[in-house]
Amino acid sequence: MARPIIALLTDFGSRDHYAGVMKGVILGICPDVTLVDISHDLPPHDIVFAAHELAATAKYFPPGTIFLVVVDPGVGTTRRGLAVEAGDRRFVAPDNGVLTAIIQETPPKRVVELMERRYARPTVSRTFEGRDRFAPAAAWIAKGTDLNAFGRPVADFRVLELPQPIVDGGILRGVVIRVDRFGNVVTNIDRRSYERVANGQTPLQLTVRGQAIPRIVSTYADIATGEIGALFGSTDHLECSGNATSAAERLGVAVGDTVELRRA
Asked: pTM above 0.90?
């Protein structure tokens, strides 16, 4: 039987003990688990960013993987903790919308509230539920505990209004949703929306925050030195990139800035 996998996605960073102690709690409950760090360097408290990162990640993990997602500015409040089964993967997270993109792609089979105290640590800190509530729940799921054991079903879980690309005739409007560590400016314009507007015609005119991007290319290597170009990245979303430089800095753009694509 394959070892269970728990994949962790948080905004805890690597300087402090937070991510490491969650792993310690998990291993104390399920010592045979394989732990995978997706990232602990998400922008602090940025639930929308985390939702996009999770959606870009989850589909590449083996079926049965459990995702422990803790980006939780509401820690210690009355917001609920959730265990979710969507497709052939399960998720443990606060009920703050961080699972929105996953739920939109794959409607969940089950959503339950984390209520049963036996599956949490004896004392739950109001400042670190990741350690005391969410990590233990993920570990017990990895040990084979059925989701229904954790609490009552939830139908009114929170869903964020994530920005979607809008097609208006021959114009496609979107926004910047992420800037990665290389300075690549990732938009919410997916290939399907792009092809709908292109309708087999080229070239298309792309602007980001009103600034023209001269070319849409196939690879980073197609972008000349000193140039900013665009291409479809690994998540199949249109992104702006520079040749060994930060496109975000060169363009002066940030998450939420407008993107427009139109037929020439």
From this structure: yes
